[in-house]
Amino acid sequence: MKTPEEYFQENVRLPGEEKGGDLSSAERAFVEKYMGMGGASELEGMPRLDPRREDSLPGFAAVAGADAPPEEPSPDEPSLEEQLKNESELQLVSFVVGEQEFAVPIMTIQEVIRAVAPTRLPRAPEFVEGIVNLRGRVTPLVSMRSLMGVHGGDEDKFIIVCRRSGMQVGLIVTSVKTMYRATQDIIEWGIESSVGISAQLLAGLMKKDGRLINIISVDRLVTHVLAK
C-alpha cells in the first residue's frame, strides 16, 4: 500500500507551471472582502512561509508546484462531489478536531504542516483565525473547531492545506489520524437533512467500524469563507 506521500507524488498534480503570479479571482475576492482594496499591497509585506520537510507531517510534504496559482473552477466541469460519487473507491484522509473525527478527499490536500500563528483579520468571522503567506499564496486559516462547533479535547497542532475553487485554505485541526480507502457502499451522500450543525459544509457521511465520519466539502468551505 502506498504511503500518502507516494500517492501525492504520483497522483496529485497541482495546476500551472508558473511560480507565484497574480491573485486568482477567489483570492482577490477574499483579500478585498477582509482586507480592503489595498489588501494586495499588505500581502506583499507579510512574511513568506516556506515550510521545510521537517515542518511537515511525515507523508504529507508539499508536492511540486505548491507555489503555483490555485486552479480556477470551470463551469463545465462536474463538481468534486459528483466526481467522487462516480469513483468506485475513494481515498480519504481523516483528522481529529477535539475528540471528533472528520475526513477530506486526499486529492484536495496540498500538504500538512505544523500550526503557525497567522496575521489576524479584524473583518473576518470568528472561524477565520487569520491568513498566512504560504509560498507566495494568500492562505486563510480556518479553525475547524470553531466552524464545526467542537469543544474540548487536545489543542490544535496541525494545518491541512487544501486547494479547491481557486483558493488555498488551511484547516486548523488537532491531529491527522489515518488514510481510508472507502467504497461507495459505506458512504452516504446528500446528508444535509439528516445531520445537525454545519451540515451545509458536509459532502457525505462514511460509516466505518461502527463509527460515523463526516466528510468535509472543501468546495463548500471555500464558498462559506468567501460569503461571510
What's the gist of this structure?
The chain is an alpha+beta fold and 228 residues long. 20% of the residues lie in helices and 33% in strands.
Description:
This protein has about 230 residues and is α+β, with helices and mostly antiparallel strands. Helices cover about 20% and strands about 35% of the residues. It contains six helices and twelve strands. The chain has helices at about 5-10, 25-35, 40-45, 80-85, 145-150, 220-225, and strands at about 50, 90-95, 100-105, 110-115, 130-135, 135-145, 160-165, 165-175, 175-185, 185-190, 200-210, 210-215. It has a six-stranded mixed β-sheet with strand order 1-5-6-8-7-4. Strands 9-2-3-12-11-10 form a six-stranded mixed β-sheet. The chain is globular and about 50 Å long. It starts with a helix and ends with a helix. Residues about 5-20 have low confidence and may be disordered.
Instruction: Supply the number of helical segments.
Output: 6
Tell me the major beta sheet.
Answer: 6 strands, mixed
Radius of gyration: 17 Å
Q: Structural class, please?
A: alpha+beta
Distance between the termini: 41 Å
Strand order of the largest sheet: 1-5-6-8-7-4
Please state the average pLDDT score: 85
Segments where pLDDT lies below 50 for 5+ residues? 7-20
User: Helix share of residues?
Assistant: 10-25%
- Which strand-content bin applies to the residues? 25-35%
Q: How many strand elements?
A: 12
Order of helices and strands: HHHEHEEEEEHEEEEEEH
Features:
228 residues; alpha+beta; six-stranded mixed beta sheet; 6 helices; 12 strands; globular
